[in-house]
């Protein structure tokens, strides 16, 4: 068993073309390895809603001549390429995804290209993207592709705020807090900052309201859960695990933020925002009528903000890395995997029985991190 694993390549309009060329070179240096692209290979979430999937994939895949040529040669020689879907390229789960990729490479249906949901198993090696354990990007069910209205919070904000506003500076700013975001908007976008701030709040408020259990989106979410559950048995057969094992793995998944009103409200920092607004405007309104009450309201608001920031500066912070480490241990214990491989966090990480491939596109100091796995042992390139 020889695998070449790369995750988070993020082929998209803002990714340097050196990323495509580096992946092509590494693939050519490992001709007999199965290439496993472990999620977020394409930045489809940055494509305008309603874009033609085939056209988008063709544009992203053929940004350079080197990468499509390397993939075409690899597949044409009979060597497998397996593409796991991530949170940014979940649309690949549709039938049109594989057809579009093969068409972009001028290959027919017999090419050994596979698009897989959730995870794959190669002997004792378990490989998945890892967004199932990040509540801001977790799907309703890993075997059901989301639709407009049921996307995870991170993807929905990308679709509804980043793409229409053009505020791509915030594309990977997961740890941004309200004050920092406001200041960054004015620094980056100057006179356009008020428009961008408005578009953000319009999207954030809409998403918070949609997370109520009585919204139409809640009914769509329930439908997706049933759809995914109906596919479990077939998926269990394809990965060689018992149905009960998959059910236990699902219990370890993190509840998605967008399924709960309170979680969404707090994740988008509306408690801090409302506290700041009420504290400022309320104190100003009360000051002529009751200076003591105005002072008390201002102190109360300031105390809440100070405590919230001190205890949880950023509500994203290092949480995904810690969650993925814990999830890897659960996956190994539940499924008997000897090595668990994740991506998603963009950080190289290792623990006993676990390795994170890091981001091929956005590694430390512009490096391109990937893994070579041979006979169950991984080494980092």
Structure in words:
- Helices cover 47% and strands 12% of the residues.
- It is globular, with a radius of gyration of 22 Å.
- The mean pLDDT is 89.
- α4 links the parallel β3 and β4.
- α6 (178-189) runs antiparallel to α7.
- It has helices spanning 17-29, 53-61, 66-76, 95-104, 153-165, 178-189, 193-210, 216-230, 232-239, 243-251, 261-267, 270-286, 291-311, 319-335; strands at 2-6, 34-38, 81-84, 113-116, 119-122, 125-128, 339-342, 348-351, 354-357, 371-374, 377-380.
- The strands form 2 sheets. The protein has a 6-stranded mixed sheet with strand order 4-3-2-1-10-11.
- The protein starts with a strand and ends with a strand.
- The protein has 381 residues and is of the alpha/beta class.
- The chain has a domain at 2-136 and 338-380: Purple Acid Phosphatase, chain A, domain 2.
- It contains 14 helices and 11 strands.
Please give the radius of gyration in angstroms.
22 Å
What level of helicity do the residues show?
40-55%
Mean of pLDDT? 89
Structural class: alpha/beta
Stated plainly, the CATH topology of one domain is called Purple Acid Phosphatase, chain A, domain 2
- Percent strand equals 5-15%
Low-pLDDT residue spans? none
Q: What is the N-to-C order of secondary-structure elements (H for helix, E for strand)?
A: EHEHHEHEEEHHHHHHHHHHEEEEE
- CATH-defined architecture of one domain: 4-Layer Sandwich
Distance between the first and last residues' Cα: 17 Å
Helix segment count? 14
The beta-strand count equals 11
Across the major sheet, the strand order is: 4-3-2-1-10-11
Largest sheet data: 6 strands, mixed
The CATH class name of one domain reads Alpha Beta
